Amino acid sequence: MSFKSLVVLAALATVLNASPLERRVTCAGGQTTSNEACCVLFPVLDDIQANMFGNDTCGDASHTALRVSFHDAMGFSLTDKSFGTGTDGSIFLFGDIELTNPVNLGIADAFNLEAPFINAHPEISVGDFIQFAAAVSLTKCPGTAQPTFMLGRVDATFPAPNGTVPAPTDNVDVILARMGDTGLSPQEVIALIAAHSIAGADDIDPTLMGLPFDSTPSTFDTQFFVETQLRGTVFPGTAGNAGEAMAPIKGELRLLSDSNFARDSATSCFFQANVNNQKLMASNFQAAFAKMAVIGQDVSKMVDCSDVLPPVIPLPGSEAQAFFPSGTDQEDVEQACATAAFPSLPVLPGPLETVPAIVQDPATDGNCDDDGSGCVLSEFPAAAKRSVAEL
What we know:
mainly alpha, Peroxidase, domain 2
C-alpha cells in the first residue's frame, strides 16, 4: 500500500471515529458548524432539500443522486493516470462524452436532476456537489448510518475513458480488479453494494422503468442481501436482457453481477454476513462510502464538513428484522458461503406479492439523453425551482 493511501485511510479513520464535532462557527444564515469553510454548504443544502429532493422519502431522486456518486468516483486508477482523477465531477463536466459509455446508461437522469442546481451553486465544485447531494440523499433513507462529507474536491480537466465503471455483465474477478485499482478491497465492494437496497433499474429492461432490486427499496435494510440469495424464478418484463438474472419475486430486477457476488467463493461470505445484520451492513457501508467519496482526491487539503449534513432516520427495530418474502422460504436459498449457514428467518405472511415499481421523478427528464446528447452543463438554466405538483 502506498504512503498516500495510508494517509487517506488515516484521515478517514479520524473522521469516522472522532467524537462529535465541536460547533464554534456561526454562519451568515445562523447555522453553526465546526469550520467556517463549511458555511458555503448551507445555502446548497437548503436549496436541494426544498427543490431537488422536496418531499422525496428515499424515492427516485435519492436513488438517482446516490447512483451518480459511484459512477463519478470510478474514473480513477492507482496505476494509470489517464483514467481520471476520481470524484472530480467529470461525469457531468464531460457528460456529452462520458454518458456515451453504455455502462453509464441512465446517468442522464442524474444530470437532468442535478445540473440546474450545479449551475445555481458555482461556489462549490461539481465534484463536491455530486458527493454532497449523495450524502444528503442517504439521510432520506431510514436505516443508514450517519454519512460523512469532506469539502474541497478539485474538478476534472479531462473526461474519464470508457471502461472505468464496471458493468453488470462483467464477472466477479473483472469487477474486483477494476475496483481494486481504485483502492477498494473486495470487502468494501460488497459493503458498497448495500446501496442496491435503496436502488432500482431504469434501463436494464428497456420496456420497464423503476424496477427495484429488493422488496423494500425505500429502506436501507438487509432485504437486498436476503432476496439476492434466493433462487431466481421470474423476470419482471422481457427475458434475455444483458446484465440481468432471474429474480425471486415478480416486479423485482436482479443484476447479473449482484447474483454472481452472492454466489462466488471470493465474495459470498462477505455478502451473506449482511443478512439480518443491520448494524454491520450500515457501518460497513458508512466506511466504504466515505472512502469512495474521496477517491482520487488529496484528503489532507479537504475540510471535514460532516456536521452540515442532516441527521439520519433511524430504522424501527421491527423493520430491521429480515424475512423471506411471501411465497419463499429457507428452501429457496442458494447457499454459497462454505463457512457459515444462511440465517433462519421468518416468512412474511400473505399471498405472493408483486413489488411495485419506483415512482419516477419528473425532474429526471430533460435535455440530457442517454446517448450523451444535450448533456452540457452550460445549456441548463440556473433556475432550479419546481412546482409543488412535481415534488
